[in-house]
Amino acid sequence: MIGIEQWIPTAVDYLWTWISAPVILILGLYFTFRTGVVQIRLLPRMFKTLADATPLDADGKPQSLSAFQAFTLSAASRVGIGNIAGVGTAIAVGGPGAVFWMWVMALINGATSFVEATLAQLFKRRDPAGFRGGPAYYMERGVGSRALGVVYAVVLIIAIPFIVNSLQAFTITETVASSTGTSLDGPMPVVLGFIIATATALVVFGGVRRISKITSSLVPAMALLYLVLGILVVGSHADQILPVLGLIVEDAFTGESVAGGAIGSVIVVGIQRGMFSNEAGLGTAPNAAASAATTHPVKQGLVQTLGVYFDTWIVCSITAFIILVSQPDLTNVPQGITLTEQAVVGTLGAWAGHVLSIIVFLLAFSTILGSYYYGESNIAYITTRKPVMTLYRSGVVLCVFVGSIASAGVVWTLSDGALGILALINIPVLALLTPLVVTMLRDYQRQVRAGRDPVFTRETLPDVPGITEWRDEQSVTGRDPQ
Question: What pTM was computed for the model?
């Protein structure tokens, strides 16, 4: 067992350093070039699209989730322990410079997120609950390989709703124990695990609309509360803001703060933690993007890009400044949530630790729900048998309970490895299908220049056989043609 625990971190480190990170960076730059830097050029359209009305069906009801609901569904998975514990780990392991590379990768991966979300919309399919889609769907319908889609779906199901959700549950328990002074060896983890598992069951057995209702309320409220807490901490050390900003930039190109490290390790840690946080390129968020009812695939691509910026440039940045303005000496500091908690409590007092515990609890719980939905969408891709879905839901609930009472240990490393594999399967497929995205983007821009609210129909891509929705303008918009 000791040999395995030593071998897994080495293998995962090799995977990210020599394979995943270079592929993510190079193809992210490729997507940026092919889309004409869409992640910056169309930034104003992202905010406008977020408030788009949801197309209605023949009965006058929303066809599926709104653009905003799909945004919060993906944000529920993005905004969680990756933003609080993950950033703490990035700084402890990679130094302040890792934060700079998280920022850079958010900018580059904005294009990656745009491509994958747009493709998820293009190849989505309708089911009784609304729309479903994601990498498995565009691998089968766009590339023509169901086998590859199944492989991706299986890896995602293992990695996200089971491994990552167990980490979310453990982080809740760890944070509550720390803020209350309760031992992890006592009954508290069992009681808390039962509460989390029960709450998860009540939501996930209610379907995607119940999940979207919960996340659309929780995510904005908790993110705002966390930002307020962060502003209080950073404001208490206002004189350190500019020095910390300079430290982040300087360390990004020297790696001097890394124990025995170099610039390469700073960059890799920044990419790795950034990917864990904003998920761009992993193929997870497209499962949520596909659930939206919108009039053009590009619209949801823009919305999901905005999600990457919100996650990294705002939420992750506030965590980084919370730590660095109050903890200038990073020698032998703890990793993860403990580092963030120490900075908050050390500045504002014990009450702030309790507030942080509530924030972590609710953000991690919303991530559990969002991650669950990703797995559900991929289970539905593999099979539509109800007993399988019931078994999956029960497995997620059980995994949440076990994660609450068991030490994370090597699971953190397994999670990093699984995410690296997801990216290696998904991103090359995106590169193959990028010409379709470029065609849709040009169609979108042409309609915007003409003063129209863009509407896509499959006549725009007549030679692509895997498109089953987008029949005509009336079915897409829910309105009679003028």
Answer: 0.87
- Give tens-digit pLDDT for 131-183: 888 999 999 999 999 999 999 999 999 988 888 888 888 888 877 877 777 77
At 394-438, the pLDDT tens digits run 999 998 898 888 766 666 677 778 888 899 999 999 999 999 999
The phi and psi torsions of 262 (rounded to 5 degrees) equal -145, 175
407 lies in some domain: yes
CB atoms within 10 A of CB 107: 17
* CATH code of residue 437: 1.20.1740.10
Q: Is-contact 476 131, C-beta < 8 A?
A: no
d(CA 470, CA 269): 41
Asked if residue 482 belongs to a domain, the reply is no
CA atoms of 59 and 47, how far apart (whole Å): 29
Alpha-carbon torsion, ordered 454, 457, 459, 465, to 10 deg: 140
* Alpha carbons 116 and 142: distance in angstroms, whole number: 12
Angle, in degrees to the nearest 10, between helices 165-180 and 337-348: 30
Q: Which two tokens stand for residue 206?
A: 């209610």
Closest Cα partner for 117 from 71, 65, 62?
Answer: 71
**How many domains does the structure of the chain reveal?**
1
The answer to whether the CB of 179 falls within 8 A of the CB of 354 is yes
d(Cα 22, Cα 25) in Å, to the nearest integer?
A: 5
Q: Which of 129, 157, 126, 123 is nearest to 142 (CA)?
A: 123
**Position 208 in a domain:** yes
For residues 107 and 301, is the Cβ–Cβ distance under 8 A? no
Quick one: angle between helices 241-252 and 97-122, nearest 10? 80
Cα diameter, the chain: 69
> Would you call 364 helix, strand, or coil by DSSP?
helix
For residue 480, the tally of other CB atoms under 10 A from its CB is: 7
Q: How many CA atoms lie within 13 A of 435 on its CB side?
A: 6
Give tens-digit pLDDT for 71-110.
766 666 666 667 777 787 778 777 888 888 889 888 999 9
Expressed as residue numbers, the domain containing 194 is 2-476
SS3 letters for 273-317?
Answer: HHHHHHCCCCCCHHHHHCCECCCCHHHHHHHHHHHHHHHHHHHHH
Residue 260 lies in a domain: yes
Q: Are 138 and 120 in contact (CB under 8 A)?
A: yes
DSSP 8-class letter at 123: T
What's the rounded Cα separation, in Å, for the pair 480 and 482? 6
The DSSP call for residue 458 is G
